[in-house]
Amino acid sequence: MSELTVQNEKLVEDLKRVITDAEELLRLTGEEITESSAEMRGRIQTGLHLSRAKLAHLQDVAVSKAKEVGSTTDEFVHENPWKSIGIAAGAGLIIGMLLRRS
Asked: Model-level pTM?
């Protein structure tokens, strides 16, 4: 898994946690409502619902793209097995040399 993928997954988890915490905060402060705070609470809830929907959409897009990349890679490997072996061997050699230097 690439570092970018790990960072994206961490960001998604952090956003989910923030949204959940904000919803919990709204729930806990629900009894202390004035007219202006009720309006603000409504705007925050709307924003949270939109954020959840956008986050779900981004996750769906990311999963779809990952599946597409996997499918393309699978096709390439099946159509070019020797090239794939050569690429994997070359990458392994380079990684091994880099690790040996450390």
From this structure: 0.52
